[in-house]
Amino acid sequence: MSLITTAATAVATTGIIYAAYRLNKRRNQRLLREARRKKYAPDLPPLINPITNQTVISADSSKHSDKPPVERTKQIEELTEKEYDSWQERDEGRDANIMQLRLILEDVIGDLTELEDEEREEYTEQDRVMNLEARAEWINEHEETLEEHATFVESEMIGSGIIVEESPPENDDLDQRLEREGGKSGAVQVSLAWDDFNDLDLHLFCPSGERIYFNNKNSECGGELDVDMNVKPVSDNAVENVVWQENPPKGTYKVGVHFYKYHRKRGTKRRTKYRLRVSIFGKVQEYSGMIKYGSAIQMVTGFTIGTEADLSKQYSGFE
Question: In this model, does residue 288 exceed pLDDT 80?
């Protein structure tokens, strides 16, 4: 066999081995995604596309429009096995942190009379006001430790939400819920929905370092929490909404979900499925997940508006 023939055979063999390696790697990644989808969002349809794209609006397309480029965070279903193990270790650390800081509401104010008797079917305006006052009292007492926990959670760069690959079903009522509660829409809109009487809360970490949540509903950078539900267990088709109607600042946003209060209401459990919709300049992505009462704030997803050069500057609205 000539030297040329031997070299050609070696190249071909190497190519076949490399192709098999790539094929096996893609297969393993697909199996990992499927396993995590079943664990964190078992009600989602089967996986369709094993290849994901973190680009929401590309830099190239943004040159021809008034919209800056947008990239989303990597989600847990996109991690390698080693990366996932590291994420899980960090997640356990967050759960330990919220317990160490005694931020599980039931442990702190479970003896307040206005939070008892959850089996009642009807709640008056006075009930709602009393519960708002109880929550304000809890915040005043634990504001520093809650901020400490939120800062710890904000350092996470991986989202726990599972990507919903198909468009929502025809009977999806998230838009109807927002309309019912007077939720606004805008350039950036993040909406959380769940189907029991528990009190889940949105926490939106802004590029400025500010956090929008129930105790800070209007941010200095233009974001607003305009719908906040189930302080009292009044609805089993609840929704919350944070919106920048125009000129959202450039930089990195992170979306957190907190299981604030477990309401002892018939059929309501300590584990809640949720869905999250993120709309950025008309581009919509939905996520699904599950959160357990007593766990840390979950970093569900995040996104960055603007280029790397923009992130080195102080945030500001774009024209």
Answer: yes
pTM (2 d.p.): 0.82
Q: For 133-148, how does the pLDDT look when each residue is reduced to its tens digit (9 = 90+)?
A: 666 676 677 788 889 9
Asked if 178 and 238 touch (Cβ cutoff 8 Å), the reply is no
**For every residue of the chain, which 3-state class applies, written as one string?**
CCHHHHHHHHHHHHHHHHHHHHHHHHHHHHHHHHHHHHHHCCCCCCCCCCCCCCEEECHHHHCCCCCCCEEECEEHHHCCHHHHHHHHHHHHHHHHHHHHCCCCHHHHHCCCHHHCCCCCCCCCHHHHHHHHHHHHHHHHHHHHHHHHHHHHHHCCCEECCEEECCCCCCCCCHHHHHHHHCCCCCCEEEEEEECCCCEEEEEEECCCCCEEECCECECCCCCEEEECCCCCCCCCCEEEEEEECCCCCCEEEEEEEEEEECCCCCCCCCEEEEEEEEEECCEEEEEEEEEECCCCCEEEEEEEECCHHHHCCCCCCCC
- The first and second tokens of residue 116, run together, are 């008892």
Question: From residue 290, how far is each of 44, 154, 207, 258, 273 by CA, in Å?
Answer: 12, 19, 26, 11, 4
Domain ranges of the chain: 55-311
Specify whether the CB–CB gap between 2 and 47 falls below 8 A. Answer: no
**What pLDDT, in 10s, does the model give residues 155-186?**
999 999 999 987 666 668 899 999 999 999 99
Cα-atom radius of gyration of the chain, to the nearest Å?
23
- Let me know the angle formed at the C-alpha of 260 by 258 and 264, rounded to the nearest 5 degrees: 135
